[in-house]
């Protein structure tokens, strides 16, 4: 559970209520980014087939960068006078999305699914940046800084899904499983069987 109590103190020039509001926004971002770096590591471990090593090695720097983002977000929450919540049970209880839907699967399927994951994380991060803009410039700047990297990583994923004409194979998809299927179909790869994918999820949109 997020700490919703009003802090006893916060950063100069914000009221404690404003500090609490910004910290609550950041707690959601902490949950999302923690989920993201764990998911990226899960893909690093479960990607198979052609392009294995390219995707396997592409993901570790993303894991490290996103982990660093979680640290900065958690420490900003503490700086604002509130307790950051970083335990796995609290994350699962608070999150509004399902677990990542693929297990062992091809590189192109994971990349299709990760396109949806990044779409959801970035959309929510941009909203958080907008929501903090009138309250706290420092938090807004922190989130904008993350977006520089997150949107770059999203492009790294999407570049694998893009045709020479600039079209994304996952265009119009809103689920990880659907995006994985379309990405695989575009390359002529066989989509993974039902044993490899789990329930369709709209989780990415909510992260
Ligand atoms: Fe590794």
UniProtKB/TrEMBL annotation:
Residues 24-162 form the Ferritin/DPS domain. PROSITE patterns: DPS_1 (PS00818). The keyword DNA-binding applies. GO terms for molecular function: DNA binding; ferric iron binding; oxidoreductase activity, acting on metal ions. InterPro entries: DPS_DNA-bd, DPS_DNA-bd_CS, Ferritin-like, Ferritin-like_SF, Ferritin_DPS_dom. Keywords: DNA-binding. Residues 181-207 have a biased composition (Low complexity). Residues 168-207 are annotated as: Disordered. Pfam families: Ferritin. It comes from the Bacteria. Belongs to the Dps family. This is Starvation-inducible DNA-binding protein. It comes from Krasilnikoviella flava.
């Amino acid at each position: 559970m997020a700490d919703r109590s009003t802090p006893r103190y916060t950063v100069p020039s914000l009221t404690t209520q404003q500090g609490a509001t910004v910290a609550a926004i950041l707690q959601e971002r902490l949950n999302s980014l923690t989920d993201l770096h764990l998911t990226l590591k899960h893909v690093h471990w479960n990607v198979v087939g052609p392009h294995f090593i390219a995707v396997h090695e592409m993901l570790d720097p993303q894991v490290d960068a996103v982990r660093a983002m979680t640290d900065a977000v958690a420490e900003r929450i503490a700086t604002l006078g509130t307790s950051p919540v970083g335990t796995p049970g609290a994350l699962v209880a608070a999150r509004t999305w399902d677990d990542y839907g693929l297990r062992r699967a091809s590189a192109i399927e994971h990349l299709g699914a990760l396109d949806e994951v990044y779409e959801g994380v970035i959309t929510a991060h941009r909203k958080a940046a907008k929501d903090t803009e009138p309250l706290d410039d420092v938090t807004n700047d922190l989130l904008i800084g993350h977006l520089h990297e997150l949107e770059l990583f999203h492009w790294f994923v999407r570049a694998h899904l893009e045709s020479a004409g600039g079209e994304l194979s996952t265009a119009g998809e809103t689920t990880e499983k659907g995006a994985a299927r379309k990405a695989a179909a575009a390359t002529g790869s066989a989509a993974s069987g039902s044993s490899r994918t789990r329930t369709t999820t709209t989780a990415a949109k909510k992260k």
